[in-house]
Amino acid sequence: MASMLDSSRLVSCSCSGLRSVCCGAAAVIVGLSVTGCSPAAGPANTAVPASTAAAPVAGKGLTVRGSAPPVAGGFRAVVLLAPEDGHAVAVPDAPETMDQFGLSFLPGVLVVRAGQEVAFTNGDDVLHNVHVAESATRETVFNIATPIAGAYLHTFERPGTYTVACNVHPAMAAYILVTDASYVAVAERDGRFELSGVPPGRYRVTVWSVDAVLRSERQVEIGAETELRLHNEG
Ligand SMILES: [Cu+2]
C-alpha cells in the first residue's frame, strides 16, 4: 500500500494494449483440460485474443499450443508458464491497457508481469471509476475516477489476482492477474491458447479460471516434437 501512489500516475495519451502472437519454428501441444467442466454462458466481455505478455527473442524458442478450460462466467482462462531453470524474460516496457467501453471492461481478463504497467482508459462518454482490489486480502489497491481523456497508469508489483470493478455500474467486472511467470497467455473462449518463444525445458504450468474448480498447476517438460496432454482426472 505504501508504494501505491509511487507506482500510479495519470497521463494523457492514447494506448492500445493488444499485442500479436508470433510463431516459432516448432510447436508443442499442451492439453490442459479438466474433466467435468462445462462451458459457461456469460457476457462477451473478454474480447482480447490469446496473447503473450513476455517478449521472447524473435525466431528463438518453441510455440506452445494447447487447451485450457473454456470461458467460465464470461471470463477467459489464463495460462502461466514459469521456467524451472530460472531463466527470466524481461518485463515488457510497454503498458498493457484495460479500457472501459460499452459499459464493460476490455479485456475482461488481463494478465501482466509483476512490475509491468497497466493503463486504465475510458472509451465511453459516461463517467466510470476503476476500483481495484487484491483478491486474497480484499484490500483496495486504488479507486479512481477514470479520466475521459488520457489514462491512469498503475504498476502492479505484487503477483496475485486482482478484481476490477466500476462502482457506477455494478455489472462491470474484470480480473487482472499479475505474475512472475515469464510466459503468459489469455486463452480463447473455447480454451485454446498459444505461447511463442518458449525455450525447451522443464516448466511449471498454472491454469487460472474464475471457477476455482477449473484451476490447476503441474510440471511439464517442453521440447521439440513433444506432445503433452494434461488432465485433472483426480
Ligand atoms: Cu462504469
What is the helix content?
under 10%
**Number of helical segments with 4 or more residues:** 0
The CATH superfamily is known as Cupredoxins -  blue copper proteins
CATH top-level class: Mainly Beta
Order of helices and strands: EEEEEEEEEEEEEEEEEE
How far apart are the first and last residues' alpha carbons, in Å? 39 Å
What are the low-pLDDT stretches, counting only 5+ consecutive residues below 50? Answer: 1-6, 12-26, 33-59
Number of domains: 1
Spatial extent as radius of gyration: 17 Å
CATH topology label: Immunoglobulin-like
What's the structural blueprint in terms of helices and strands?
Elements (H helix, E strand, L loop, with lengths): L7 E4 L15 E8 L27 E6 L10 E6 L12 E6 L2 E3 L2 E5 L2 E7 L6 E6 L5 E6 L5 E6 L3 E6 L7 E7 L3 E4 L5 E7 L2 E8 L7 E7 L4 E6 L2
This protein binds copper (II) ion.
In short:
With 234 residues, the protein is mostly beta strands.
Labels describing this entry:
single chain, 234 residues, mainly beta, Immunoglobulin-like, five-stranded mixed sheet, 0% helix, disordered N terminus
Describe the structure.
The protein is mainly β. The protein has one domain (8-232): Sandwich (Immunoglobulin-like), CATH 2.60.40. It has no helices and 18 strands. The chain has strands at residues 8-11, 27-34, 62-67, 78-83, 96-101, 104-106, 109-113, 116-122, 129-134, 140-145, 151-156, 160-165, 173-179, 183-186, 192-198, 201-208, 216-222, 227-232. Strands 1-11-8-5-6 form a five-stranded mixed sheet, with no helix packed on it. It has a five-stranded mixed sheet with strand order 7-13-12-9-10, with no helix packed on it. Strands 15-3-2-18 form a four-stranded mixed sheet, with no helix packed on it. A hairpin with a 5-residue loop joins β9 (129-134) and β10. The chain is globular. Residues 1-6, 12-26 and 33-59 have low confidence and may be disordered. Bound molecules: copper (II) ion. Copper (II) ion is lined by residues 128, 166, 168-169, 172.
